[in-house]
Design a protein that fits this description.
This protein is α+β, with helices and mostly antiparallel strands. About 35% of the residues lie in helices and about 10% in strands. Strands 1-2 form a two-stranded antiparallel ribbon. The longest helix is centred in the N-terminal third of the chain and has 18 residues. The chain is flat. The two termini are about 50 Å apart. The mean pLDDT is about 75.
């Protein structure tokens, strides 16, 4: 009987699994409904027929705080406390341990 290594066994099993998956037929996915032939931009029905909410939502009560933060020059991570304060409040809002605000505007909460 020929002995094979663990690496050889894993390689053989992986190759077999890959070969099996290649022969599977996968359904095609589409955002279009069967009755929707055209996108809305091409004359088809709109996905969201109503109006979209205004953005950004502006709260005048916070306007003074925002202006004070911008004028302080301490609104970026390098020399200000406002980013850390925001991350702490957002993490608490999301029920996460921590949150990382990124330059792209993405918020990445680390869930418990």
């Amino acid at each position: 009987m020929r002995k094979i290594t663990r690496r050889q066994a894993i390689s053989a099993a992986s190759a077999g699994a890959l070969g099996t998956m290649v022969n599977w037929s996968l359904p095609s996915f589409s955002i279009l409904k069967p009755e929707q032939d055209n996108l809305a931009i091409n004359g088809g029905p709109k996905v969201h027929p109503g109006s979209w909410p205004d953005w950004p939502v502006w709260d005048r009560a916070e306007e003074e705080n925002i202006i004070a933060m911008l004028r302080s020059g301490k609104w970026w991570r390098g020399n200000g406390e406002h980013v850390a304060e925001f991350e702490n409040h957002y993490a608490a809002l999301m029920g996460a341990k921590r949150c990382l605000a990124t330059a792209s505007g993405a918020l990445m909460p680390e869930m418990k």
